[in-house]
Structure formats: structure tokens, C-alpha cells
Amino acid sequence: MNLTLKIWRQHDGNSKGDFVTYQVSDISTEMSFLEMFDVLNERLVNEGKVPIAFDHDCREGICGMCSLHINGRAHGPQAGTTTCQLHMRHFKDGETITVEPWRAQAFPVIKDLVVDRTAFEKIQAAGGFVSVNTGNAQDANCLPIPKDDADASFFAASCIGCGACVAACKNSSAMLFVSAKVSQFALLPQGQVERADRALNMVKEMDALGFGNCTNTGSCEAECPKEISIDNIARLNREYLLATLKK
Amino acid sequence: MQKFLTSSIGKKTVMALSGLFLIMFLLEHLYTNVTLFFGDGGIEFNETSHSMVRMIIIRVIEIVLFLAVFVHVAQAILLTKENSNARSVKYAVNGAKDTSSWNSRNMGFTGSVIFFFIVVHLYNFFVPYRITGTIGGAGQETVAQDVVAAMENPIYAGIYLISVILLAFHLSHALSSAFHTLGMSNKKYMPIWDKVAMGFAVFMGIGFGSFPILFFIAKLMHKDLLNWGM
Fold first, then answer.
1. Tens-place pLDDT, residues B122-175
2. Looking at chain B, which residue has its C-alpha nearest residue A217?
3. With CB atoms 3.0 to 4.6 Å apart as the test, which of A4, B3, B35, B97 could cross-link to B44 if both were Cys?
4. Which of A139, A141, A247 is nearest to A203 (CA)?
5. In terms of CA atoms, which chain B residue is nearest residue A204?
6. Which among A105, A215, A238 is the nearest to B85, CB-wise?
7. What range does the domain containing A70 cover?
8. A69-70 and A73-74 as β-strands: parallel, antiparallel, unpaired?
9. Which CATH code for domain B2-83+100-227?
10. Do A83 and A123 fall within a single domain?
């Protein structure tokens, strides 16, 4: 298939970026979106031009490194899919595809399509951990945890921290990410020790880093490649309210 | 408490609680307006209006109501500014319409129109009835007639109807969003809140929308809707 790509190019965080149009041809429908970028970059290198910078790592949809806002959608138009798992068969031959970096003050552009997501690391460091000894594998069977709670915790923990929720939210809110990280511990006995502090500190850090406020539009849930539910946001709201009353 | 009120979740909680209070007022206002349809020449409407002016508790709630409007609007402006600052470079292509409802994305717009309408509404009724005493007659026995006269004015009826429609859009997201913000939502209850919010929005839209529509149509047909039972 042949495509026209309008790609955001920006030399570094201090430069003014702009869209550059590229034509790519003979793209296989079996390629992933990132492999299509590899083809383009190989050509740019052969032509002595600077290749397009974009984040990627595992290319298996589990590391959370890839990003890209494709035709107005975080990780492209396919629901529950990371950009590395998005295949070119979901596009039409001759289509013009616009690719932009995540847009948020808390995620500044480093180069081209690469943004700095250190803000998520800072939020995690503010409370996304447990300090108790969680024991060994056999100890898990000694802890009575209802299956529903274990499942809800696991689903929350499946957040890969890619930032699609922030990218998709009209307010650049990080509530889905923070709520997933708070929920995965709040539902388990190991997370009880720092439960109140975790909610207070992670929200405080999130606010300080310049993310916007949640208005419950649900865009984050719709764009999350791991389909993290906004139930977690309601849980975070509860956790935060209760923690405020306790502390 | 100060930390809570200045946090993102705290600010949203204030929006939710002030919004829910305003919704309670809307229900009360709708009931009062419905008395215009009693066909008694507006006697019940006038008596309800007068009794509200006389009751101390209502006067106190009235002050709380003005405060709630102020807090809701001021907080909305603050949140909108913060949210706008959180993304200074906008997307060239935005696919938000594929992932969220128009109502949820345009609360600022619908809210602004509703606020504009509240100002017009207060100027048309609250100020002349309660402050200057220029409507309602000497003994304030013609308030209902004055209200109906306003509804028969095509410009006012049009503004009223558009505002009510946008109010319904606002409420369809506001109610479920408030429950979500207050943490009263999960997989089981979220679909229920969504349906309750949609049902409530339609109910309020039809309820408030019926006044300009029916009184305007009645005027075109030369019928006296206010006195139909007499």
C-alpha cells in the first residue's frame, strides 16, 4: 500500500516543530505501524537525512514505551492496542496519516515524536509501592483475598504507563494512570499500610506536575491499550476523600 | 481541608456538591412552575411565590443558592483555565469525538449559556419581583400573568427554550459525573448513573421546555392556558 504521512518533526524541546510530509510506498498490510516507520527511517538514513525519532522497545504491546497520536487517536484508531501492535491493514491504500507526539505540558517533547514521560516515574515514586515484605510464592496462598478483588487489582496493575490516557484526555489529566496505580494496592492486604498516604501523595505529585483535572469524559478508558476502566478513577476519588478524612 | 480544596480531586468535589445542590433547586423550581398548569388562573403559583418570600428558611437557602452558583461558576472558570494550561500545544487532528460524548466535552460551553440565561432570568423576574417591585401587581397577585406574558414573547421564549435544551445536555453528563467524582460509582452502578442522568436530563428538558412551548402555542391558538380550569 502507498501512504502519505504528515509527521511532526521537532529538533529538540527548545525548537519550534512543524509537520513534514513523506510519501511511502510498497508498505505491507502485515507490517506494524512502527515497522512502517522503520522502512521510512531506513530510506531517510540512505538519503543522508535525519531519521524520525520515536519511542519503542518490546514491540509486543507490554512495555509501554511506544506512543504516537495517529489521525487524532492515541495509539491509532484500533481499541485496546498499542502502536507497536497496530497493523497497517487498519489503514486504507492512499490514505494520509497524521502523526503527532503526545501533547501535554507534563510530557514535554524531547525530539520529533518522543516525549519525556518522567512525570509518571515521579508520581510512582511518590507512593506507587509497598514497604511491607510480600513473602514468597507459597505465602500468597496464606492470604485470604477474594477473587473479585484479586482480579480488579490485577486489571489495574496491567497499566503499562504509556501515557495514552493523558494524551487522549481533553484536559491532559493523569487520573486513569494514578487511579490504576492506587487501585492495584488499595485492593490487596499488602497495600493497606500506606493506603491513605499513597492516595494523598500520588495525587499531590500529579497536581504539582501540571496535569489537568478529570472531567469524566471517558476518553482515557476508550484509548487505553490495556483497557483500564474508569471505575478506578471513582475508586481513587473515594480513596482520596477517605484519606483526607483520616489524615 | 485547605490541601483538599486546592487539590484536583477536591476542586472536582466542590463542583459536584455545588452542582447537586443546584439540581435540587431545579427540581423545586420545576414544581413551582408546574403550578402554572393547574388552570386556576395562577392562584397556586402566586401563593407559592409569596410564601417563599415570607419563609425565613427559604430566604436563607436563597443566599446559599447564590453562593452555590458563584462557587460552581468560579470553580469552573479556574478548572477550565488549569485544563487549558495543561495542554498549551493542541493537536492538529483531534479524534475526541470518537471516544467521548459531545455533552461531556462541552460542559464549559453549555454551562456558560446556562449562566448567561440565569442572569437574563434574574433580570426579568427576580429583580422586578423582589427588588424593584415592578411586576406582580400592587398586591403581587399577578406574578403568574407576568410570567406567562414573558413566555408568550417569542424572543424570550426562544432564549428560554435554547437554554433549557443546553441545560438538559449539561445535566446528562453532570449528574453521572458528580456521582463518579464523589466515588459513588463502580462497574455495577456506573451504567445505572448514566441512565439516571440521561433520564433526569430528558425529564428536566421536557419539564422546563413545556412552559415556553405550551404558553406560546396557546397564545397562537388564542387559548388562555392559565385559566383553562376556570
1. 998 888 888 887 776 555 567 888 889 888 899 999 999 999 999 999 999 999
2. B104
3. B35
4. A247
5. B7
6. A105
7. 3-114
8. antiparallel
9. 1.20.1300.10
10. no
